[in-house]
Each structure stands twice: as structure tokens, then as C-alpha cells.
């Protein structure tokens, strides 16, 4: 049961409106002063109730936090929610929920891709990196078991492959592993017969998490494999080294038999999408989701270095027809912006 005791939190009414005017959307009977989403730290003070009411009215869905797990010492957490508003919660891998976060000065709305499989609904999971100075991630990090979350969704674009006859190559940085974990688990449990290769770029060994689940997928499904690439590896590290744009191209012996999913840091998604296009991969085979750095523009020297790392020769590469690099850099083939603003 969601707890909103006044002795544990600052007394407040539901999101800037009187309970009698607009009761909470949860299926249980409303309890004035208790059934509000999230928590309101006392130092935030009072705000313009008209603005709060206008903005929160669109975020009328409710989910209760039922489990919180600290995944790493560097600030990555897993939040498990159960939808409690009695409405359907249907999604595909790659879908997100838009969360209403209460921060100093008002409310912010941010999309978070779903970590769990669709089959777990109405329970869903988010993986969140707590960022220093990140108000939205701090809000989610402040939630405790029993708190309610105000959200919209789920919505977005499915990451399911268009053609079952193609392999999948998945690249994620940081918490971009979330939707790719969902995608891999869903496909493998559904009998996907092609190979799935997952590459996960992180900074340090301390950032690694979800190993038990990924290793279980690899053990149960011979067609699935994953590798972690560290940009700051410790001594003796036996995994991949460097950024994904450095470590992955030499491992791709062919390109034309695969679809690609690129999720996370916009620098990686932009550079890798452009490089794949330059190597002959069609735009329909590239899906990109930038969590931040969405306006990153790589320079020619960077792109030349990335292209030089590819060993695949099965496609006609446009870059091979332009050795002088006279072509101009454009927004990558198959590019796509994140669903609704920046993320912490």
C-alpha cells in the first residue's frame, strides 16, 4: 500500500489541487493528503498551484514503487513499479514512460525507457543513473517503496526487428542498456532464431551491472552474446577496451546481414550511425536513440578513424568511392531523436 504519512513527508495536497476537485487516479478510495505521487521535500516550499494543476493534469497515470535496487556504487539504480490505476499497460521493447518529476521551481517531464519485458506488465522496471546536479534523476532516486509515480504512457517506437531473417547488433552506453535488455529478453523468449550481439560501453568496471541476467540469457540461448567495453579499464581487464566506436567495428566481419540498434550517448549513436551509413548499411537497418548529446556533430578526422576500424567488406561503401572525403557529414541515416527532451 502506498504510504504518504505526514510525519514522514511535508504535508501537501495532491499536486496543486484540492482533493475534492480532482481525486487521485488510483483504483483505491482517495485519502486526502496521502494519495499524491512521489514526495515533496519541505525545502521546496509552496508553488503556483495553477501552474502545477495545469501541467500535472496530463500525467494522470499512477504506479507504485514496489522495489528499489542499488545496482552499482557509482549511482545506478533499478526501480520496479506496479501500475495501480486499473488501466491497461501495453508496450513493446523500446517504449518509454514519461515521468513527472517534482523539482525546485515546478515540475519537469522526462522519458525513461523500460528495462523489463512486456510480459511482466503491469509491473515495469526502469534503470536510472543518479547524476550529480541532475534534478530529475534525483527525484526518482528519492522515491521509496510505497511511493506513487505520476506518469504518461507507455509510448514510443518499437525496437523489434523488421526482418526476422537478419541478425541483430545492439550497441548501448550507460543506462541505454535498458531497452536493449528488454528487446533481447523478449526476442529470445519468443524463439528468435537469428543471432543477437550486444555491446555495452561503460566508463569503469564499477559501472558494470546486470551481469547475472545477461549471463543467464547467454547460457540459455546460444544465439545471444554480450561484451562490455570500458573506456577506463582497470589493470588486468580482459574485456573490450575503448569507446564502442573503437572496439566494435573490428569485430563486425559482415554488415549487410544485420540490423543495428544504437542507444545511449548521442556522440556514440551519431558517429556509429554515420559510420555504418558510410560503410553501406541502409537507413532502414539503423535505429538510433540518443539520451543526451543529441546535437553532437563529429568532425571528419573522427569519422575517418572510425571507418578505418571496420573490417567488413560485404557492402559497397560510399566512403570507398570518395577517398578524398569530399562528401559532407549530414544527420545519419536512420537517425531518430529521443522521445521528449533531454535526460539526466
Q: How would you characterize the overall build of this protein?
A:
- This protein has helices at 49-56, 135-142, 177-189, 211-220, 244-247, 266-278, 300-308; strands at 61-70, 76-83, 96-103, 106-113, 123-129, 148-155, 167-173, 196-202, 224-230, 240-241, 258-265, 286-292.
- It is of the alpha/beta class and 344 residues long.
- Residues 1-54 and 326-344 have low confidence and may be disordered.
- The chain is built from seven helices and twelve strands.
- The protein has two domains: 24-155, Translation factors (Elongation Factor Tu (Ef-tu), domain 3); 167-321, Rossmann fold (3-Layer(aba) Sandwich), CATH 3.40.50.80.
- The strands form two sheets. Strands 4-3-6-1-2-5 form a six-stranded antiparallel beta sheet, with helices on both faces. It has a six-stranded parallel beta sheet with strand order 10-9-8-7-11-12, with helices on both faces.
- InterPro entries: Cbr1-like_FAD-bd_dom (IPR008333), FAD-bd_FR_type (IPR017927), FNR_nucleotide-bd (IPR039261), MRET (IPR050415), OxRdtase_FAD/NAD-bd (IPR001433), Riboflavin_synthase-like_b-brl (IPR017938).
Tertiary shape: globular
**Number of DSSP strands?**
12
Structural class: alpha/beta
User: How would a textbook summarize the main sheet?
Assistant: 6 strands, antiparallel
Summarize model confidence as the mean pLDDT: 81
Radius of gyration: 22 Å
Domain FAD-binding FR-type: 58-161
Protein name: FAD-binding FR-type domain-containing protein
Cofactor: FAD
Biased composition (Basic and acidic residues): 1-21, 32-50
Amino acid at each position: 500500500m502506498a504510504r504518504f504519512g505526514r510525519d514522514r513527508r511535508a504535508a501537501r495536497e495532491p499536486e496543486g489541487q484540492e482533493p475534492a476537485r480532482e481525486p487521485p487516479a488510483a483504483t483505491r478510495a482517495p485519502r486526502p493528503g496521502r494519495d499524491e505521487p512521489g514526495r515533496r521535500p519541505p525545502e521546496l516550499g509552496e508553488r503556483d498551484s495553477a501552474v502545477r494543476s495545469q501541467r500535472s493534469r496530463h500525467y494522470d497515470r499512477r504506479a507504485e514503487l514496489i522495489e528499489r535496487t542499488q545496482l552499482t556504487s557509482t549511482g545506478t539504480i533499478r526501480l520496479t513499479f506496479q501500475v495501480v490505476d486499473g488501466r491497461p499497460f501495453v508496450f513493446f521493447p523500446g517504449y518509454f514512460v514519461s515521468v513527472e518529476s517534482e523539482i525546485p521551481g515546478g515540475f519537469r517531464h522526462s522519458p525513461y525507457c523500460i528495462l523489463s519485458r512486456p510480459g511482466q506488465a503491469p509491473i515495469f522496471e526502469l534503470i536510472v543513473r543518479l547524476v550529480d546536479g541532475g534534478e530529475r534523476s534525483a527525484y526518482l532516486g528519492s522515491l521509496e517503496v510505497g511511493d506513487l509515480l505520476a506518469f504518461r504512457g507507455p509510448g514510443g517506437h518499437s525496437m523489434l526487428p523488421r526482418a526476422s531473417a537478419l541478425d541483430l547488433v545492439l550497441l548501448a552506453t550507460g543506462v541505454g542498456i535498458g531497452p536493449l535488455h528488454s528487446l533481447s529478453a523478449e526476442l529470445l523468449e519468443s524463439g528468435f532464431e537469428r543471432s543477437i550481439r550486444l555491446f555495452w560501453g561503460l566508463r569503469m568496471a564499477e559501472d558494470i551491472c546486470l551481469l547475472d541476467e545477461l549471463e543467464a540469457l547467454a547460457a540459455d540461448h546460444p544465439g545471444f552474446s554480450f561484451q562490455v567495453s570500458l573506456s577506463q579499464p582497470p589493470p588486468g581487464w580482459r574485456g573490450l577496451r575503448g569507446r564502442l566506436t573503437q572496439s566494435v567495428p573490428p569485430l563486425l566481419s559482415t554488415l549487410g546481414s544485420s540490423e543495428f540498434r544504437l542507444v545511449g550517448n548521442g556522440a556514440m549513436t551519431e558517429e556509429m550511425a554515420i559510420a555504418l551509413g558510410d560503410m553501406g548499411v541502409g537507413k532502414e537497418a539503423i535505429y538510433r536513440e540518443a539520451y543526451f548529446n543529441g546535437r553532437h556533430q563529429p568532425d571528419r578526422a573522427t569519422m575517418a578513424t572510425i571507418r578505418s576500424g571496420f573490417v567488413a567488406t560485404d557492402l559497397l561503401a560510399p566512403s570507398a568511392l570518395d577517398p578524398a572525403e569530399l562528401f559532407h557529414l549530414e544527420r545519419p541515416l536512420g537517425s531518430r531523436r529521443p522521445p521528449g527532451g533531454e535526460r539526466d
